[in-house]
Every structure is written in C-alpha cells, then in structure tokens.
Specification:
Elements: H1 4-17, H2 40-43, E1 59-63, H3 70-85, E2 89-92, H4 101-114, E3 118-121, H5 130-138, E4 142-146, E5 157-160, H6 164-179, E6 183-189, H7 195-208, E7 216-223, H8 228-241, E8 245-250, H9 253-264, E9 273-276, H10 280-288, E10 294-297, H11 300-315, E11 326-328, E12 334-336, E13 342-344, E14 349-352
Parallel strand pairs: 1-2, 1-3, 3-4, 4-5, 5-13, 6-7, 6-8, 8-9
Antiparallel strand pairs: 10-14, 11-12
Bound molecules: alpha-L-rhamnopyranose (RAM).
Amino acid sequence: MPAPGIRKACAALAAAVTLALTATACGGTTKNSVKDDDTAARASHGKADPHAPVKKGLTVAFLPKQVNNPYFTVADQGGEQALKDLGSSFKEVGTNSATDTSGQVSYVNTLTQQRVDGIAVSAQDPGALCTALKQAMRNGIEVVTYDSDTDAGCRDVFVSQASAEALGRTEVQLLGEQLGYKGEIAILSAAQTATNQNTWIGFMKDELAKPRYKNMKLVGTAYGNDDAQQSFQQTQGLLQEHPRLAGIISPTTVGIKAAAQYLSGSRYKGKVKLTGLGTPNDMRRYVKNGTVDAFELWDPAKLGALAAHAAVALSSGRITGQRGETFRAGGLGTFTIGDKGVVDLGEPTVFDKDTIDRYKF
Ligand code: RAM
C-alpha cells in the first residue's frame, strides 16, 4: 500500500485529470483503486492504525440536508468548533431546500473537484448521492454521513444521532402515554425520500403493532418537506381529513415547530397531542403555553462535532469504518463503530415543562 502522502498525491492527480479516473499507478488496496462494486468504499481502506498521528490542516466540508435550517446551523457549528480544536478547517455548502437532491449531488461533485479532505453530508435521499460520493471516495476523500444516511456502500461511516430504533419507538411511547394509548394518530414527516425520517417511521409502525397500542391507529402520513409553510398546511390538512385525530408525531424539527404553531392558534390546542423531534429553543413557547407536553432530540452540536472527529480519524488512518474500531472524539469521549459503519452519538433527551429551560439550543 502506498504511504499516506502518496495516496493523497495520487488522489489529487487523479482528481485533476478526471473525475472518472483509473488510478492504477497508485495500485494495491488503497482508496485510490477504482472499484465499482458497492463495497468499494470501506473495503478499499486497508487496516486502521489507532495510534496514527491525528492529521492537522485538513479541510472538512459539511453538506447538510438544508442550510437555512436552525437544526443544521447548530450541528454544523459543532463541526466547525471541533475542526478548529483539531487544527483543521471547516466549510459549509448546501441547498436551501431539503428536496433539492440534484443540488446536493452538484455540491458533492464540486467538493470532489476542490479536493477537500473530508465530506460530512446529511443525505436528502438514500440512493441519489451514491455515484457522486463513490467518486469522491475514489478521489481520496473521506465520506461521513451524519443525521441522514446514504446506502452503506457509499460512505465510510454514518454518525447517527441515536439508535434509529430507539428514536422511532420512543416517539410512539411518548404519544401513547399522552393519549392514554387510545385514538387516531398521524405522522407529519419531512421529505418523502429522507433516509432518517423513513427509518424512524419504520420503527414507529413496528412499535404500533404491539398489543399495547391496539387502540391507537395510524391514519395518515403527510410530508412537509422541512418547509415551515408546507408543514403548517399539511398539519391543517391532516386535521381536516381526520376530524377525530387525537395525536401527531412529527419527527422533524421544522415539522414539529410548524405543527405546534398551527395547533397553538387553533381550537385543537392542548386537545390534539403533538410530539416528535424538536429543538428546545423552537419548542419552548409551545411547551409553556400548553400546546406540547413532551418531545425529544439530541444535541445537534454534538452530532456535528462527532462527524468532524470521525472525518479526521478516517483521514488520519486511525479508523477505516470497520465494525469494532474505536476513536476518541475530544470531550465527547470514545466511540466504537458498529454494524455497517454506524456510530451512535447516544440516547435522545426528552424535554418537558420541567426540564426544557436547562437546554439552550
Ligand atoms: C430536521 C431534519 C433533520 C432531522 C431533524 C430531527 O431538522 O429533517 O434531518 O434529523 O429535523
């Protein structure tokens, strides 16, 4: 396997020549090798050296689902701070809409041409970015997904906010408690293609299939596309379509805020229960005015910081994305890579009127 410097030089040369490269001179099992199969990404890394020095002077680009979303602003600021602490540089690019998949693809291609060292991306769609991300990896770029994953073969590591299963099940449990396990419920999601929301919804349905929820019925799923106005209108639509609706789960910070805003100004306030994933700053007023009892989230800044640490650990050769590898992420502690290259940040936090003022994000 060529030395890391040579790997990078080969990658840089290849990127300069063409994005559709064949870096045979770089040879061996390095990530410059062209492999077309889905396992190319992680299988081509070689062996991790947990004691390799942490590289400095890297550039890691964050590509969130959507740049004008306060959740991603906080997450990416966490990434920026972590990179600063590690002696590397941060940049952020991205689309204004959470459904501009071709825009996300263009950004990946541009970052590949710019030869950044790492990309941390929250995918709007599981498959759409694959070709572009594989191209990035063939060009020596480390690819970390955070918040919303692609297919596992199209990135090195997925930094997940919490176990997807825990998130899906606990949202149903929270609503179940609030409804006394009775009534019609609906889901107000983000984009129809969003990997993270769709995974959580899968676990919500699995949870709802348990005998305890036999009197709770999922009657509809709407998509507000992480757009405030669309989410507001979709909430209104759900209530019109299902006059007996007793509760809504919105697993998106944009959706839950818009739904709370709608409910808060309507006759349904306090009657139709709302839970899901929101930021304490967005939801504080709706918890205090009795629209929302409890909801959950993780600390987005920590998620961004963990993604930054993972990208630098990959670039330094300390990890390759294989199950069982461990890496230290500054003050966040030490993390172990699990199945399919997934790293979980931790458990979600539940916020209610007694606890919400402890959190400022
Ligand atoms: C929105 C986005 C993001 C999701 C959060 C909970 O901001 O859809 O992907 O993780 O909500």
